[in-house]
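User: Please predict the structure of the protein below. I'd like the answer in structure-token form so I can feed it into my own downstream comparison script.

Assistant: Understood. Taking the following sequence of 103 residues as input:
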Amino acid sequence: MDRHDAIKQFHGGGDRIADLIDESQAVGLPAPDTETPMVSRSVRLPLETYERVRAAADARGIGVTTLMRQWIEAGLADLDDSPTVSLADVRRAIASLAHPSAA
């Protein structure tokens, strides 16, 4: 059957599509990685930035979305003085110990 005939059959009604759906195997959805309700948002990134994020996620053995969520949560924690410590602050503290300023 060519494309034209398939479209004609689809729009012509009948039970062919329903039969195909009924014959298919049930597909289980993946379990969410958290019980917290999530909201999906689209973020536009330059290709180079996305590739860097993907490489960082791969190096950690986690997904890109998970890594981006962790970074956002850490950035928000930095804004509201929550107990999460940003990596940048840790690096600054270590650098200051390695190179103490003259008093």
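That's the full token string. The CA atoms of residues 13 and 25 lie 23 Å apart.
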